[in-house]
Amino acid sequence: MAPKQLILGVAAGVLLLTAFIFYVVAQADESYGVLRGFEGAGLWSGTLPGNCQGDDVCHKIKAARAFFIMATIAAFIGALLLLYIVFRPHPKVMYYAAIAMGTRPIYVVSDVEFLHEVFVKQFACFHSRHLPFTARLKSRNLINLFGANGDHWRRQRHVINPTFSTTKLKLTSPIVNECIDALMNKIQEKENQEFDIYTLYKRLTMDVICHSAFGIDTDMQNDIDNPFIVKTAYFFAVHPERIFLVKLSYLMPWLTPILTLFVHSIIALFNGLRYLAPSFMNQFEEIPGMWIINQVKQVIEARVIKIKSEANNKQRRIDLLQLMLDAVTSNEIKDKNDENLMSKRFHQDEVTSNVFFFMIAGFETTSTTLASCSYILATRFDIQTKLQTEIDELYAEHNGEFDYDRINNMTYMDLFIREVLRMFPIALQAVSRECNTETIVCNYKIEKGDVIQPDILTLHYDPQLWGPDDPYLFVPERHLTRRHPMAFMAFGQGPRNCVGIRFALMELKLCLARLLHQYSILPGKQIEQGFIRREILVIQPDAVYIKLEKRC
Fold first, then answer.
1. What is the biggest distance separating any 2 CA atoms in the chain, rounded to whole angstroms?
2. Residue ranges for the binding site for heme?
3. Which domains are present in the chain?
4. Binding-site sequence positions
5. Torsional sign, CA 107, 358, 139, 347
6. For residue 102, which of 283, 255, 285 has the smallest C-alpha distance?
7. The model scores a pTM over 0.85
C-alpha cells in the first residue's frame, strides 16, 4: 500500500472511531443542547467550526462536550483531522478552533450581538476569565489583575488604572524614548545586513516595561544573555493547558479539589525545604518562575527602602509599582460595599503578583506586534512609504521630536497598527469569559462554569463585518469606516479589556516612528520561512528576517 493511501486509511479509521464515540456520548447526553436552547442535541450544536453561512444555517455558536478521557482524546484527534481535510487553512491566515475542555462546555462564538451581550451588557454574569485551576491555586492575595474576579478584580483595576492615564503616559514617554535610543544603537550595527529584528524587539519591550513600570535599570538590550529575557522566554514555550495536571482537571473536574490540595502540599514542601535545606533548594532557584518572582521581590524591597529614605521627597518616582505600593495594607477589607475603602487597599503579595504579571504581559505581546508590523512593512513598500510620509511631516513640524502628544496625531499610523492587529491578533484565548451566574444570552441558556470563547479570527476575517474590501487584504483605510465594536477584539472588549492598551500603542508608535524616520525596511531572503506563526500562550512568528537601509 502506498504511503499516502496508508495515511488516508489510518485517518479514516480514526475518524470512524471518533464518530462512533461521538454518537455514543451524544446519545448519553442528548438533552444537553435542547435544555439550553441550542438546535441539535449532543456534542455539537449547529455545524462544524468555520462552516457558518448565516443565521439560517447555523447560529455561529458551536459547543462541544465529552465525558471521559478516551472520548476526549479520540474527539480531539478526529476533529483536527476533519478540520484539516474539510477546512484546509487559508495560506494567509491560520484558522483557530476550540473544542470541549473535558466535561466543561466551551461555546466558540462569532456572532457579534451574542458577544456584545457577554462582554458588555451582561458583564456582571461574565466577569471571570477562563483559566486553568493552577492559576487559581494561591490565596486571593496572590491573584493578579489577569486572574482576579468580581470585587477583587474591580479593586485591583481601580488602583492600577491611573498608571495608564494621559498624564502618566506623557511622563513615561521620555523613558520609552531612552529605551528606543538603545534599540537604535543596536540597529545601527545591523545596517545593510539581514537579521532577525524580532529578537531586538523582545529586548526592547522588556527594557521598556522594567524601566517605565518598575524602575529597574538593566542593560538587557546589550546583553544577549540577560536572565530576564532568557527566563521570561520559557513562559511562552509551554502552554499551561498542556500540563498534565491541568488536562486532568479539565477531563475530571471532580478531581480539582484533590489536585489543588496536592499542588498546595508541594508548594508547602518547597517552602519548608527553603529553610531546612537551603543548599538543596539552590538548584530550584533557577527555575524560571521562581527566579523571576525572587527578582521581583528584591525590586519591591529595594523600592520600599527607597521610599522610607526619601519620605519627604515630593519629586519621587510615580510609576505602576509606586501606585501599587501606595495602596498597600496589611488589613483585610471588611466592607465590600464601601467603594472608598475598597479602592484604597492593596495587599503586599498582590504587588508581587501584579509586577510579575505585567512584566510577562508587557514583554511578548508588544514585541510580537512590532514583529508583525515589520513583516508587513517589509513586504508592502507602498504602505511603508505612506507611513514614512506622515512621519516625516510630523518630524518637520515639531523640530524632530517624538512624544506622546505628537505620535497621537499620526492618523495613518493608528490605522496601520489596527490593521496589523486585525490580521495578526496575538492572544486569542486570553479574551475568553467564564459564566459566573446562570443567565440567558440571545435566547440561549448559559450555565455557571460554561466558557464563552470569541472566535476572533472568524470575526477579524468576516467579509460582512470588514467589507467591502477583501478581509484577506491589508487595507488600513478600512478602519476609517465605523464597525461593530465586537468586530475588532485584539484588546478584548467591555470593562475588562486590556488595561495597558494606551501604553502599548504609545510604545508601538514611538518605536515605529523613530525606526521608519531613519530607515527603510527591506525583506530578507528568509522572511517568509521565518514568519511562521505558532500559538503557545500567544500567536507569534519564529523570526522576522529583514534588512535596514539608511534613508537619505
1. 83
2. 498
3. 1-121+428-489 (no CATH), 145-251+285-426+496-550 (1.10.630.10)
4. 498
5. negative
6. 255
7. no
